[in-house]
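[09:14] KT: can someone run the structure on this one? pasting the chain below
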Amino acid sequence: MEHPIIGYHKDEEDDWVAELSCGHNQHVRHNPPWQLRPWVTSRKGRESRLGHQLDCKKCDRNEPKDFKV
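[09:31] RB: done, structure tokens below
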């Protein structure tokens, strides 16, 4: 199920995590060659993706929310 990105934070390993409107978090790493997400490396890039839809696997599995929306 797709939900828009509403914010970001870094995890304990200093990786970027997208906060989705559904209340779930999802890592948004740029680790070539497996994941090409150069936009995550800059503040301007991350801001440009606010509202972008990501497929939330946690919603598909009916997992509890990571945070309150």
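[09:33] KT: thanks! The beta strands are 2-10, 16-20, 25-27, 53-55.
[09:34] RB: yep, looked fine to me
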